[in-house]
Specification:
Layout lengths: L8 H7 L11 E7 L8 H20 L21 E7 L4 E8 L5 E4 L5 E3 L23 E2 L5 H7 L24 E5 L2 E14 L2 E15 L4 E4 L7 H5 L1 E7 L11 E8 L12 E4 L9 H5 L2 E2 L1 E6 L2 E3 L3 H4 L9 E3 L6 E3 L1 H14 L4 E2 L1 H7 L4 E3 L11 E5 L4 E3 L6 E5 L2 E4 L1 E2 L16 E3 L1 H4 L2 E6 L4 E6 L4
Parallel strand pairs: 3-10, 4-9, 5-9, 17-26, 18-25
Antiparallel strand pairs: 1-2, 1-12, 2-3, 2-8, 4-10, 6-8, 7-8, 8-9, 11-12, 11-27, 13-28, 14-17, 15-16, 15-21, 18-26, 19-20, 20-24, 21-22, 23-24, 27-28
């Protein structure tokens, strides 16, 4: 959600002081995950991750109702998305780390020597020593003005109504674009918009819109928005597609990386990547809610557990013109979220097919995950397959580690979350009903083919 806070303009004005080279065929960047926890107790770790996933889902589904200031969940370094890349902005380039996020669109970094991050005293993170971008040291830093078309990317066509010193009847306006405020599931950030140079190996992108954040809550790193809006990395860079491979989350500090691959420029038509299954992106809702317009909607047709097609309300599998219902893909959500009307029949099918195992209700209550099962006394436990079938027949048959996880000794749990509110089929819902999270995407090659408007995937070891 973006709003105006004009009191920041004068402060930023004091703090801040073409053409691109030929496009390479691809740009490959290391994609790291690094999650640090105060406790090594897996019960607390999974309790934390399930709470994070649920809070993120609530924000994506209904951003106007769920302010991050109302959420009180411990947040550890990069555990809110888990996968980071390094990008360099400015002249000369200044490298910084960013969380790669397909659930939002603005690209922003901690900015100026006065950057303040509230509630950022995480494990091994000193809030006073967060790396920041210094506009004074970049000859290419320029503030975005109210009449710059890129200001309207954030505020829409009525942007001049937010620029109080601009006379709509004249073209002479030197006022800076109003400060942005972006809310995430567990944090927020505010700052001013800059035009900067983004530097890649063998490629630079000039006049790139980027957020210079001077105050954030629970955001120790910048965020690289890979959503579908005009201000996102794919849109500004003119990517025909991008792809990533998320390494398995081991909940430690192992310096293992996957890949983020960018494909700039126009492609060669309808060329598919070998070995990938594809499903078309659904049409984004034409609504005023910019968050919904930024999502990657896909058409999930069936959820299959152990060969059994689970019956869920059809209205939840299809996204409406209002953005409600349907499925989105989000790299910033850890565990896949399902609305209760979808989750309950899925969970019950697991319970039915695993009836020989004892329910571990105590672990369920501690972690917020369910169903959980005690495997003691069972040497060769067999679990039902979990398959997501999409429009066009593409099937994502998840590896066991992507949906059943050992929590405590002999106890395993389903790593999918839901809201506790049971919603009947006749009641009004808001936002996507299913959010495909990064835990279920790990060790998959995931492709966002923007040129051909489709989502592709295949199993692949990412390390």
């Amino acid at each position: 959600m973006v709003t105006s806070a004009l009191c920041f303009v004068s402060l930023f004005s004091l703090l801040l002081l073409s053409s691109s080279s030929p496009l390479p065929s691809t740009i490959k960047l290391p994609l790291y995950h690094s999650t640090k926890f105060q406790s090594s107790d897996p019960l607390l770790v999974f309790q934390h991750l399930s709470s994070l996933s649920l809070s993120r889902a609530r924000q994506l589904k209904s951003p106007a109702k769920h302010s991050s200031s109302l959420v009180d969940i411990p947040l550890y370094s990069r555990s809110y998305g888990g996968y980071s890349i390094s990008l360099s902005f400015g002249t000369p380039p200044q490298p910084l780390k960013f969380v790669m996020d397909t659930g939002s669109s603005l690209v922003w970094f901690p900015c100026t020597s006065r950057y303040l991050c509230s509630r950022c005293n995480f494990v091994n993170v000193d809030p006073t020593k967060i790396p920041t971008f210094l506009p004074k040291q970049s000859s290419s830093s320029k503030l975005i003005g109210c009449r710059n078309p890129k200001c309207a990317w954030i505020y829409g066509p009525s942007v001049l109504s937010k620029c109080q010193d601009c006379n709509p009847s004249t073209q002479n306006c030197t006022q800076t674009c109003p400060p942005y405020i972006v809310e995430y599931g567990l944090g927020s950030t505010t700052g001013l918009l800059l035009s900067e140079t983004l530097d890649f190996p063998n490629q630079t992108v000039t006049d790139f819109l980027v957020g210079c954040s001077i105050f954030s809550t629970r955001q120790p790193e910048g965020i690289a928005g890979f959503g579908r809006s005009s201000e996102s990395m794919p849109s500004q860079f003119g990517l025909r597609k991008f792809a990533y491979c998320l390494v398995s989350r081991r909940y430690d500090d192992t310096p293992t990386s996957g890949d983020l691959i960018l494909f700039p420029g126009s492609g060669k038509g309808d060329t598919k990547t070998q070995g990938l299954d594809y499903t078309p992106f659904s049409k984004n809702p034409n609504v005023s809610n910019a968050v919904f317009q930024s999502h990657y909607y896909v058409s999930l047709r069936k959820i299959i557990v152990g060969g059994k097609h689970v019956k869920v309300p059809h209205s939840l599998l299809v996204s409406g013109s209002d953005g409600n219902g349907g499925t989105i893909v989000d790299s910033g959500t850890t565990f896949t979220f399902m609305e209760s009307a979808v989750f309950e029949p899925v969970a019950q099918e697991f319970v039915k097919q695993l009836a020989n195992f004892t329910p571990a209700t105590d672990i369920q209550n501690l972690t917020g995950l369910r169903p959980c099962f005690n495997l003691s006394g069972h040497e060769n436990a067999l679990f039902p397959d979990l398959v997501f079938q999409f429009k066009g027949g593409a099937k994502m048959k998840l590896p066991l580690a992507n949906y059943i996880t050992l929590i405590d000794q002999d106890v395993v749990c389903l790593t999918i979350v839901t809201d506790n509110n049971v919603i009947g089929p006749e009641q009004v819902r808001e936002g996507p009903a299913i959010i495909l999270g990064s835990f279920q995407q790990q060790n998959y090659y995931i492709e966002y083919d923007l040129e051909n408007n489709r989502f592709g995937f295949k199993r692949q070891q990412c390390a």
